[in-house]
């Protein structure tokens, strides 16, 4: 890739994206995931909550990627950022995972809550909280958690469709910048509150007595870091095809810079949450980490932290490596492995606190692969219908030519 690419006066519309091999692979991943779910559900009687824990971990993958996509899209829309314009259609394709969240959430709520959450079992819920029949006892119920979570996800889907619809209408030369910014503000207000409650219920709900005021923000930062890793891998892949003239060194450099930035923010939030609990050393909070340091789970925390912060930070400190497509791909893969371990480290000790199950165990991996395959199918279908560049955006060519840097 040349350091001084030609100045584009126009760009051809590459049309819809056709990726038959990747589509076939995605279908196979979905099939494997469904078969793994059925096999675990029917034949593993020793740990009835294991399969539903795998579903919970799997549904968080498209949820976090799509959450990060929408946060990133709306932040850049509100800030009128130009650099990201050539990637907006790619990012929009990665925002359709909420549909999978909805389906998996309903399935989990109707059939799996009682297997993984103590508060969902009527016989144990009355003795679960210190204040019996108090506000938290009334709050943590299957009906409330499932209903509010479904309402939140439906709201995300509607707002996501509104914003993506505005973007697509721009291809017909409609002026949507002001409307897109307005709906982006609405999305951020709704999402900031609802995503926090959503993750409190589904993830921290595994330890219902544990309270963390930073958990919502931690999950948002984690979703942004995860999304950027996925976006980088997809952009590098598309740079060999329909985005060959679009993806230039300055764009790769920006992706690398954002990767470094969010790795630092993730590390800061994770450390802040831990160190406050460490110094306070109260039973109400410290047990959350103690459970995840025993039975070799602490090794997962160490590996996750290594992959999500020192690796991207130290490797991408080099300005030259930030434009190296192979390096960006490997660093992004490192972040994604770390994000997967983070979900495993959060969920598995809550289900099996006195037993160690590695994060490369087959039920979680195969069911997770099914979610990834379904997510890929949704993204590929969107790119096939609407292409991979926002061809109607008047800022497209100036962003490709990096005029905003001069």
Textual characterization of the structure:
- The structure is a single chain.
- This protein is mostly helical and 406 residues long.
- It has one domain.
- 69% of the residues lie in helices and 0% in strands.
- It contains 17 helices and no strands.
Question: What is the topological layout?
Answer:
Layout: H1 20-43, H2 48-78, H3 88-93, H4 98-111, H5 113-116, H6 122-125, H7 135-139, H8 142-169, H9 177-202, H10 215-238, H11 249-280, H12 283-291, H13 297-308, H14 310-315, H15 325-351, H16 362-386, H17 396-400
Quick overview of this protein structure:
This protein has 406 residues and is mainly alpha-helical. It has one domain (20-386).
The count of DSSP E runs of length 2 or more, i.e. the number of strands, is 0
The number of helical runs is 17
Strand content: under 5%
Radius of gyration: 22 Å
Terminus-to-terminus distance: 21 Å
Share of residues in helices? 55-70%
pLDDT averaged residue by residue: 90
The overall number of domains is 1
Uncertain runs are: none
| Coarse shape | globular
Order of H and E elements: HHHHHHHHHHHHHHHHH
- Biggest sheet character: none
Structural class: mainly alpha
């Amino acid at each position: 890739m040349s350091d001084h690419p030609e100045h584009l006066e126009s760009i051809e519309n590459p049309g819809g994206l056709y990726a038959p091999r990747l589509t076939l692979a995605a279908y196979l991943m979905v099939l494997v995931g469904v078969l793994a779910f059925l096999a675990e559900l029917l034949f593993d009687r020793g740990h009835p909550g294991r399969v539903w824990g795998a579903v919970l971990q799997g549904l968080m993958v498209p949820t976090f990627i799509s959450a990060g996509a929408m946060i990133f899209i709306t932040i850049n829309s509100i800030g009128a950022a130009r650099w990201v314009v050539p990637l907006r259609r790619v990012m929009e394709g990665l925002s359709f995972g909420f549909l999978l969240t909805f389906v998996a959430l309903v399935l989990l709520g109707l059939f799996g809550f009682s297997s993984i959450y103590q508060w969902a079992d009527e016989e144990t819920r009355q003795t679960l909280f210190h204040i019996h029949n108090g506000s938290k006892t009334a709050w943590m119920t299957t009906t409330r958690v499932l209903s509010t979570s479904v309402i939140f996800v439906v709201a995300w889907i509607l707002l996501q469709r509104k914003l993506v619809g505005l973007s697509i209408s721009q291809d017909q030369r409609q002026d949507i910048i002001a409307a897109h910014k307005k709906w982006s503000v609405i999305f951020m207000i709704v999402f900031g509150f609802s995503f926090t409650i959503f993750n409190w219920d589904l993830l921290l709900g595994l330890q219902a007595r544990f309270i963390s005021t930073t958990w919502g923000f931690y999950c948002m930062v984690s979703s942004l870091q995860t999304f950027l890793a996925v976006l980088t891998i997809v952009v590098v892949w598309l740079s060999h095809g329909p985005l060959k003239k679009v993806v230039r060194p300055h764009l790769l450099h920006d992706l690398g810079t954002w990767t470094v930035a969010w790795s630092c923010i993730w590390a800061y939030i994770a450390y802040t949450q831990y160190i406050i609990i460490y110094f306070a050393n109260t039973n109400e909070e410290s047990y959350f980490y103690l459970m995840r340091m025993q039975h070799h789970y602490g090794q997962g925390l160490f590996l996750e932290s290594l992959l999500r912060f020192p690796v991207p930070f130290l490797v991408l400190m080099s300005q030259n490596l930030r434009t190296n497509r192979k390096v960006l791909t490997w660093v992004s893969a490192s972040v994604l492995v770390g994000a997967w371990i983070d979900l495993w480290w959060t969920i598995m000790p809550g289900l099996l606190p006195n037993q160690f199950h590695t994060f490369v165990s087959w039920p979680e991996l195969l069911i997770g692969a099914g979610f990834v395959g379904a997510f890929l199918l949704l993204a590929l279908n969107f790119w096939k219908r609407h292409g991979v560049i926002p061809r109607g955006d008047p800022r497209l060519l100036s962003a490709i030519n990096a005029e905003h840097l001069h």
